[in-house]
Structure formats: C-alpha cells, structure tokens
Amino acid sequence: MRPALILLVAGVLTIAEAWRYQVCVENNVDYWGADLRNFIAKNFNHCASECARDSAKGCRSITYHKGSRRCYLKHTPFGATYKKSQSLLKSANLDCDKFSKLPSWPADFKWAFAGPPKGYTCVKIWEAASPAAHTWNDNFMCWRNDRADPGFRWSMAGAIPGQRCTQIIEGAEPVKYTWRDNFLCVQYNSPYHLSWTFSNALKDRELAAGKACIQWLEGADPHTWRDNYLCNKPYNGAYVSNSLPSWPEDFKWSNAGVPRGYSCDRIWELATPAKYTWKDNFFCWRNNKAAPGIRFNMNGAV
Q1: pTM of the shown model
Q2: Are 196 and 168 in contact (CB under 8 A)?
Q3: Is 147 exposed, middle or buried (CB count within 10 Å of its CB: 0-12, 13-18, 19+)?
Q4: How far is 190 from 27, CA to CA, in rounded Å?
Q5: For 164-198, what is each residue's pLDDT tens digit?
Q6: Which of 34, 84, 96, 185 has the CB geometry, 3.0–4.6 Å to 163, for a possible disulfide?
Q7: In a 3-state reduction of DSSP, which class is residue 212?
Q8: Three-state secondary structure along 101-160?
Q9: In degrees to the nearest 10, what's the CA dihedral of 238, 111, 106, 119?
C-alpha cells in the first residue's frame, strides 16, 4: 500500500445511509484509468461525495481536475496507474482507513455469475466437468477490493491440505459433473467459519442459528442452483496487523504438500497425468504474514 496523507474532506463525508468514510487525499496525483463514470462536479468535496454514494456500484477512488472540475469515479483504489507530478489533478481513495481490514460478512462480500463486478476482488468458482452451457466459467465469490484479502480458495478436486474447507455440493447435479469433490477453503486461523446449504429449508435453519447467508445463483445450470447459500456468522472485519510477506525470503515452493509454518496456494493442472504428482505442489508464504492475494487458476487469467 502506498503511504498517503490522511485528510478529512469536509470533516467526514456523510450520506443518507449515515455511512461514514475517511478519504485519503493526494494532491498533484492522477489515479489514471479504471473509470466508472465522469461528470462536472461542483467542487472536490462533491466529487468525493458522489463516490461515497456510488460505493455499492464499486466506486473506490476519485481523480478531480482542478481546472475543469471534471470528476472521475474509479473502481479500484489508486485507479489502474499511479501518476505523480500532475499539477492540475487531485486524487483520493475512499474508505482508506479500512484498506488493512478484513471484509465484513456479509456486507463486504458479493456473489457474481457474470464475471467479476467492478470494485471487487474475487475467487473463481467453477467445475471443469460441468457442461459449457451451464456457464460456470464466469462465476465468482467476491469481496470489496479496498479490504484485506480474506484468503478464500477454491478447489474442484477435494479439500486443500492444510486448510479448513467447506464442501460445496448440489445433490441434484448428475454424478458425471463431479460436484461432490468441490470445496471452498480458508486457512485454519481464519475468522470465517463458513457453512453451505443447498435448500431453502437448510438456509432457514442457518438463519435461525444467527448466521447470514449469501445466495450462489447460476440460472443457466438446470440442476436447482436457485436455493444454494454460503453462510457465516455476521462478522465485523478486524484489522490485519501482520505485514505482507517479503520477497523472496518469506516465500517457499513445495512439491510435497504444505510445509509447516506456511500458508499456501495449490499449483496444479487437472489435465496432467496423476503419475506426475502435481496435486501436492504448493506456492507458500510464512503463516505469520498477511495473505498476499496469490491464487492459481488453470483456466486462463482471472
């Protein structure tokens, strides 16, 4: 994270929903790209307030032209490219005091069945054996991209060793589509304790137990994917005090499972013959460091 001067724009921005945002302002800086929309603002405060109002639509930062008063709303912190020495521009990140805070459940999470939504970081949820017509290749479980990484990882071939995993199953799926070995995993020390339901009755039981549930919907799959939910106790995201791992000393490659003292992402290729043993290969970082957000995908760029 780049250091930024912490300033309060007009004290603290407040909108109708009574949300409060702390805005980190950088003068003579352009957060270029990653635009949601642009318009002529009354002033810088108006520009920042509009981003706050569009937060649910993915607004995470702004760039304001001091001459023309044009306001650019962005869907990523710092935009796509960070440019200094831009004397006519002023930029700011919204809600920047929460960059090192884990996403709250369920408020900061979102399910997407048509690609990653703007303003979010996601883990891809798919099953290679599912027919293309069921369109699982564009399904994602997401969290706000101005929050710390919650460490969610997907596996379509059994629970990931060394992690706490929740089975994601839909009993109506034909066996040949292999949905019975799919898991969503977190590290053992994760504050998220996920549970899965595949009927409204089970979802109601989770709600009665005090959990909050997010629906996983894939309308193109005919096998009752309209009553499936991922649940967790309501959680107010805590600040992550650990620093990110340093390169290369805090990272490690393992070709024989998860090494002790490390958190890992599994690196493998489903089409590789089992005799080549890629299934126990992991790229790892020390488990006393913050999650670096590394995820492997065997089906193209995420």
Answers
A1: 0.78
A2: yes
A3: buried
A4: 37
A5: 999 999 989 999 999 999 999 999 889 999 999 99
A6: 185
A7: strand
A8: ECCCECCCEEEECCCCCCCEEEEECCCCCCCHHHCHHHCEEEEECCCCCCCCEEECCCCC
A9: 50
